[in-house]
Structures are given as C-alpha cells and as structure tokens.
Amino acid sequence: MTPSSALVLFSGGQDSTTILAWALTRYARVETIGFDYGQRHQVEMTARSVVRDRIAERFPDWRARLGDDHRVDIRTFGAIGETALTSQRAIEADARGLPTTFVPGRNLVFLTYAAAVADRRGASRLVGGMCETDFSGYPDCRRATLDAMETALRLGLDRELSIDTPLMRLTKAQTWGMAKALGGEALIEIVLEDSHTCYLGERGLRHDWGYGCGDCPACTLRAKGYAEWVAAGRPALAGA
Predict the structure, then answer these.
(1) HEC letters along the chain
(2) Which of 30, 61, 104, 217, by CA, is between 20 and 30 Å from 138?
(3) pLDDT for res 99
(4) Residue 116 predicted with pLDDT over 60
C-alpha cells in the first residue's frame, strides 16, 4: 500500500465495486465520487450507498481507509445526448455501430469533475472501472482515450495526476476472479446482492449473477462473465 490517496469513480455496479476494493488494498485513504446524469437506472445511485455500507461492515481494515463520498448532479449533461441510458429509447446499434447506451463524452466529463474534486481533496489518483476487453464498445473506455485525458488533466491542473484502470485488460470472468482475490466470498456476496449494473434498473429479478433484466448489454456481459468464471471453478485472479 502506498501513502497516497485515491478518488474512485464509483457507480455502485460490479466493476466499480471491484475497483473500490482494489483501491482500498493499495491506498491509505480512498474517497468515492458518483454522478447523477439522469440515467434511467437511477437505482444505481442507491446501490452506491448500500455497497459502501456493506464494505465498511464486512471489512474493518478497509473501513478505516474509506473516506468521503461525493455525489455530483450533471443531469443537464445527460439530457444532451438523448441516449438509451437517459431517455426512453430502444437499446440497439446506431449508424456508427455503437450501442445507443453510449453517452457521448460521459467518461471524459466524469474524469474532469473527478479531477477537480481530487485537486481539492489532495488525491493523486483517479481510479475507474473502464475496460476494453469485455465491454459495450464505448470509445471513451479505451486506454488510449484515458491516456490522452490523463495528459490533458495534468496540463490543465499543473500537477501530477494518474488514472488507474485495473480492469482495462480483464475479461468479465477475470473481474469476478479479482473480486474473490481481493475480498473472498464476502465481497462476491456484496457484488451479487448489493451492486447494480442493469441499464433498465431492474431489481426484482435475481439471477445466479445478481439482479437485472437479463437482456440489456450490461446484464448480458455480467451473466456471461459469471458463467465463464463458474465453469472455470470460481478461481481467484492471481496477482490481484
């Protein structure tokens, strides 16, 4: 663990729950930030608080390092794109081949706000759950995009600031394995019972892999990864 502090972009989903645990094993102080951008799955804003509370309850060492949570209202930004995540549109491919759940520039905006908060709070690391292995094809999840954003933020703030993406090269099955390596079955239970990933905000249907509609891209990726992980014997990810 290093003495520096980190700010985790925390949505309350599977990926951000895993990276929160990852950060808590590495940094002396970890704060979280979440964004209300008018998403249809508003339930994730509730899940954020529940997951944080569960982690604090189950992991006393992590509780001592878990700092403040920051919630940012950017609904005006979310309304601009009129995507399937922020309006009643069908989830399908658009003319560019991107899913209509893609909110243009969302991660860039998130990181800009997060960097401003990190500067005020003295955090040197931003931690995000972006991944370009098993993902929905969002261009702002690519490491090349984040490298460019990291450079821009360093220049714009005139300070050292890094963007950590521990899931970038992992499959969803490996993300399950990372969660087990970091927090054992206790963290797996939190992911299953308390995190929220479904784009439609479905919390009534409980599957083997957690709650969700089972059909949206987020549920499909999560279910596929869980099935692959179980088929492999539910291994912990080495080196996590």
Answers:
(1) CEEEEEEEECCCCHHHHHHHHHHHCCEEEEEEEEEECCCCCCHHHHHHHHHHHHHHHHCHHHHHHEEEEEEEECHHHHHHHCCCCCCCCCCCECCCCCECCCCCCHHHHHHHHHHHHHHHHCCCEEECCCCCCCCCCCHHHCHHHHHHHHHHHHHHHCCCCEEECCCCCCCHHHHHHHHHHHHHHHHHHHHHHHCCCCCCCCCCCEECCEECCCCCHHHHHHHHHHHHHHHCCCCCCCCC
(2) 30
(3) 55
(4) yes
